[in-house]
Amino acid sequence: MEDLDTLVLRTALAWHVQRLPVILVTVARTWGSSPRPPGSLMAINERGETVGSVSGGCIEDDLIHRVRDEGVQAVCAGDRPVVLRYGISADQAHRFGLPCGGTVELVLEPVSAHSRLDELLLACEQRRSIQRTLDLQTGHAALQAGQFDGLPRLDEHRLITYLGPQARIIVIGASDLSRYLCQFALSLGFEVIICDPREEYRASWQLPGVMVSEEMPDDLILRLQPDSRTAIIALTHDPKLDDLALIDALQSQAFYVGAIGSRRNSEQRRERLRTHFDIAEPALQALHGPAGLYIASKTPVEIALSIMAEIVAVKNGVSQPLTTPVILGKAMHENPLLAVLQAETT
After folding, report:
1. 98 and 148 assigned to the same domain
2. Domain check: are 99 and 224 in the same one?
3. 234: which strand partners?
4. Sheet strand arrangement including 130-135
5. Are 27 and 39 in contact (CB under 8 A)?
6. CA nearest 164: which of 49, 309, 9, 46?
7. In the β-sheet with 82-86, what is the strand arrangement from edge to edge?
8. Which top-level group of life is the source organism from (predicted)?
């Protein structure tokens, strides 16, 4: 399953190839509360068909009516992008369903060959981060290497946005827990790869949209060279598979590396990695084990939810004091006094 940005770009390009006039809408800036963050994308064709979103729905309705009634060229003043602002007045905020005090500024861009959406999509598929600079006077876009998570920048001459690879998760081990975890990951827009060299585990394991690898986990990690948009989770309970994957994963750029197991098993794993494989202490401290946030999970689907919640929290930059990892949550559940002490120190 593609993430939403990629889906918007691919759909906009497909409409353009079909010779349907298309507008690419980008949330450039927001003030106050806003339903969608800066950088969010939406595409509208001349028939009023849409993909993506820029608000809770009311702004989309207004844009669709404009495009249907006036046409793409009229809305965009010919072939040039235009800037629209919603929510400046209390009346607009009420009319367009914006939160109290919310204001959103949009750039509407008529899609053309100068938009270079095909090149942008190719870069994302190749897991390259791109800075896209749109000239507001000409509608021409320039592409260059850039960071993935930069905030858009808008002035009277140009809009600069940043796009990059889809979030990806590599799951070590094919099991019921893996199946639930992969389903959650797919619904959250992750690219999902599952790795298990054991034929008996792979035989009955199928899930549409998931790439299945028969390689040894460490070979897969070395081949893929995980980037900063990749999470890796080991679920086999087999040190011969999990440990080898973790050795290379902890030395990669992956934003999250985790493994399931009890607190005792997790400490034994760290000791093995420290003693036998000389993994540095900072890397061991970065290992999430037992993986997941504490939600008193019991069943495989609850454990999968717990792990996926932690992965999303790390991806979104939520610091650990605001979350409760499994190892701390279980300890506080067993010792209520520890929970009181933890609350007093945070």
Report:
1. yes
2. no
3. 172, 259
4. 141-145, 130-135, 158-163, 153-154
5. yes
6. 9
7. 50-52, 41-45, 22-31, 103-110, 82-86
8. Bacteria
Residues in the chain: 346
| Lookup result for tokens 């008193």 | 296
Joined together, the tokens standing for residue 110 give 């008529």
Q: Which amino acid is at 23?
A: I
Q: Which of 262, 224, 271, 215 is nearest to 243 (CA)?
A: 271
Residue with tokens 């999990």: 242
Q: What total number of domains does the chain contain?
A: 2
CATH code at position 215: 3.40.50.720
> Residue with structure tokens 């791109």?
130
158-163 vs 153-154, strand pairing mode: antiparallel
Pair (152, 255) in one structural domain: no
Q: Which residues contact 94 (CB under 8 A, 6 or more apart)?
A: none
Give the separation between CA 87 and CA 31, rounded to whole angstroms: 9
Instruction: Look at residues 311, 50, 301, 13 and name the one whose alpha carbon lies nearest to residue 188.
Output: 311
The CA-CA-CA angle for residues 213, 263, 221, to 5°, reads: 20
Token representation of residue 319: 């610091």
**Structure tokens, 95:** 């009319």
Range of the domain at 62: 4-163
How distant, in Å, are the alpha carbons of 194, 222, 297 from that of 244? Answer: 15, 11, 27
Provide CB contacts within 8 A for 254, sequence distance 6+: 226, 227, 228, 230, 231, 232
Q: Which residues pair with 86 in a beta bridge?
A: 104
Type of residue at 226: P
pLDDT tens digits, 14-39: 999 999 999 999 999 988 767 778 99
Residue in this structure with the two tokens 């009023």, named with its chain if needed: 48
Distance CA 282, CA 272 (A): 15
The pTM score is 0.79
For residue 27, the surrounding DSSP H or E stretch is: strand 22-31
Q: Say what the pLDDT of residue 343 is.
A: 47
- Output the CA torsion 134→140→146→151 (10° steps): 10
Per-residue pLDDT tens over the stretch 54-104: 886 778 889 999 999 999 988 987 789 999 998 766 666 666 666 555 788
Residues 123 and 190 in one domain: no
